[in-house]
Amino acid sequence: MKLFKAKPNPCSGSAGSPGNLNYPSFSVVFKPNSNIQVLTRTVTCVGEMLPEVYHVIIVNSETEKVTITVEPQMLTFNSVGEQQMYRIKFETKFVQENDSRVFEDMMFGSRS
Fold first, then answer.
1. What angle do CA 8, 11, 17 make, to 5 degrees?
2. Which residues contact 27 (CB under 8 A, 6 or more apart)?
3. 36 CB-near residues (< 8 Å, 6+ apart)
4. Backbone φ and ψ of 18, nearest 5°
5. What pLDDT digit, counting tens, does each position of 21-65 carry?
6. CA distance linking residue 75 with residue 50, whole number of Å
7. Domain architecture of the chain: domains with CATH
8. CB atoms within 10 A of CB 9
9. How many CB atoms lie within 10 A of CB 45?
C-alpha cells in the first residue's frame, strides 16, 4: 500500500478472502469441514452494440476434484453501464477435516 499512498493506512477489520476479489478469474480456498464455496461477481456492460449477451464458458482442468456451476448461464445487457450479477458454485468431493492427531510413546510425541 505504501507504493500507492504516502500516508500510513492501518487496516481495520479482518482479512478478506481471495475469492472476494472482483476479477474474471477465481481463487477458491475450501474451509475445513466444508466442501462448497459460492462466490458472486458483478459485470458491467461497456459495449456499444446492444443488446449485448454474455454466455458462460467454464474452463476446469480439475473436473475429477471440483464441480463448477454458474447461475445464470447467460447475461443480457440492454444499456451501457448496466450491471448484473452471477453466482458461481465450487463443490469438491474432498473435505479437509479440522482435527489433530497425537502419537506418542514413552519418550517422544508428535502432533499433526
1. 140
2. 18, 19, 21
3. 89, 90, 91, 92
4. -60, -25
5. 766 677 788 888 888 999 888 889 998 899 999 998 888 877 888
6. 12
7. 32-94 (2.60.40.2310)
8. 10
9. 19
Place of cell 473435505: 95
User: DSSP letter at 85?
Assistant: E
Contacts of 56 (CB under 8 A, 6+ apart): 70, 73, 74, 86
SS3 of residue 80 by DSSP: coil
Predicted TM-score (pTM) of the model is: 0.65
Whether residue 45 contacts residue 80, with contact meaning beta carbons closer than 8 Å, is answered with yes
Looking from the CA of 111 toward its CB, the CA atoms found within 13 Å total: 2
How many residues does this entry show for the chain?
112
> What is the rounded distance in angstroms from the CA atom of residue 66 to the CA atom of residue 93?
7
* Under 8 Å between Cβ of 86 and 68: no
Q: Which three cell numbers stand for residue 48?
A: 456499444
